[in-house]
Amino acid sequence: MKITVLGATGETGREVVRLAIAAEHTVTALVHDAAKAPFHSQRLFIVEGDAFNLEDVKKAVKDADAVVIALGARGNSPSTSTVQRGTKTVLEALKSLQKLTCRVIVITSSNGDKPPAGSSIFRRLLYAAQLFVLDHAFADHAEAERLLEAEDWVQYTILRPLRLLPAPQTGFILHSSPAPPSPYLPITHTDLAAAIVDVLDHPKPRQSIGVSSISTPHAPFWKTYKRVFALIWENVKNKILLAPVHFVKSVVGGGGGQVQLT
Ligand SMILES: NC(=O)c1ccc[n+]([C@@H]2O[C@H](COP(=O)([O-])OP(=O)(O)OC[C@H]3O[C@@H](n4cnc5c(N)ncnc54)[C@H](OP(=O)(O)O)[C@@H]3O)[C@@H](O)[C@H]2O)c1
To answer: Domain NAD(P)-binding: where (predicted)?
Structure first.
């Protein structure tokens, strides 16, 4: 399958590119700067440009069977509208190219969902705190979802993680309801990318899906939270172990470099 990835230099987008190529898909990555493309592969084509520029996006999606929107606003600027602007441009590009069967897969989030009635005080307080800090990001995601839902021709899948963690692949869980069944279950970037590649291989028409690395709907809660803590601990440990490496890199100016994929 031919896939176009927007946000291919980001934490999740990079993993989508890597796993999609490993699954023998052909990938076109739309990136700001070709020199920042993390991989080299015969199955990877780079288009330099901006996800908000219609002509750039048309160039990137013209051969695509599916487009993955893994855009994000690094630094979480309060004025962010990255995901909705990228989604709008992709929809315009597909319409103007008459590519109405091209699938669109978008990462948003389920953090903005109001806790259901009867939720614990802890959950409601956490929700209020999240809204206070991330209201603009949730609004951006909600608008991107609205844009997709408003176009009845487009076959989309919206993946809605709660919290993204940089731990390695652990085995994601897809939930067919819009949000994970238990609150605050994170997913790693690689698991989210694996979920996206799974959706490419097993199309799910016009759906929002909650995703997490943790738990099954019927797992006992202590097992779920044991895994949450194990994942968080793995991340803390990695950060502590890798901090000196990052420090040396920043001093000597070493970059990430490109990795050769098959
Ligand atoms: N962090 C969390 O806990 C969390 C939870 C739920 C959902 N999410 C959502 O998950 C999504 C993916 O997050 P992530 O951390 O993987 O993303 P990320 O690392 O921040 O990467 C964002 C990517 O988007 C690209 N980008 C942004 N604007 C662009 C533009 N105009 N044209 C071309 N490329 C552009 C960036 O490229 P440059 O670097 O070149 O700008 C980068 O490759 C985001 O929408 C985020 O809000 C995050």
So the answer is: 7-203
